[in-house]
Specification:
By secondary structure, this protein is α+β, with helices and mostly antiparallel strands. The protein folds into two domains: 247 residues, Jelly Rolls (Sandwich); 106 residues, Jelly Rolls. The strands form five sheets. It has an eight-stranded antiparallel β-sheet, with no helix packed on it. It is globular and about 60 Å long.
Length: 360
Amino acid sequence: MLAPFLVQPIFRNRVWGGDRLGPWLGPTPTANHSYQQCRARSAVGEAWLVADLPATILDGRTAIESGEDAGLTLHDLMQNPVQRRALMGRALSQSGLETAGFPLLLKILDAGQNLSVQVHPDLNYSTLHPHSHMKSEMWFVLDANPGALIYRGIRPDITRAQCERHIQQDALLEIMITHPVRRGDCFWLPSGICHALGAGVLVAEVQTPSDTTFRMWDWGRNDPARPLDLAAAMECLLLGEDQNLSNLDRARTPNVVHSDSIAIEGLVRTDWFDVEKWSVKPNTPLRHECIGVPVVWTILDGQFDADSLPHPLRRGSTLILPANHSGLQGRSCTEGTEILVTTLPDPMKSSTEFGGVRIA
């Protein structure tokens, strides 16, 4: 077995970054020091909470903070056959990850300015272009300024030729679909959907482990370090009915499961990950049993005291619960404890209620 363990965020400078990541996500002195170092260079746009990316991506592997493996990285566990099986369990057989990295990338994004309009490749494109990697993702809105927007999808009446013409005329926004956002909104962004995060929005992003992004438009920044890749973007871009826009909006009216002590809101269910939000009432004792696949907790608000961890889980804390562990027991201590729960799909389709959690 492998005990549940905390991980440290990796902060990334971005031209569009803001100033909210430090206050929002700095549960330990080590994390706060890392944030301050990153902030001294330039704006901080991303915190990578869970990452195991190829060595070609600088600082792309999450460090373990607690337990016997503290100081190692998530990648180190995945390279050890015994630990990899304890961590991944049945998820290995579904994803074919006998030697690959951890199949999840989880971030917090702070958009001080608008992000580029971009699109990501699907599996077919990545198979034909080995240097790219399939990327599908979801955004859960943690905070949003009044009037903040996201951009997702192209108007279904627009043809490919019309889309290209709008890009050439710097008028892409005229044909994009905009969504006003507020805290608690969720957006599914599968491969091929054109999108951009608007200024003033703070989101949690759960995605497949890829950093492949094809920019279509960048708000006139003309930054040589941020080149556009229109040919690849247009090859990947979905238009018209292929976008399946009505299906994308289903996440905005999620099903909520209630009990006397916890409410579980299903956000997205995909081929690569399932995401829920748990809202736990104060003084609720919980025990999480292993379910045969990994589960990731990210505390969105409040505090959770776990018996086996060195300090309480507060906002921004990220905990990985391996597929095979002896159970995590603790108690919600404050009003309004919220946890973003990400689970890798189980090929056995376990029916364990609430993804392995029990109300003690």
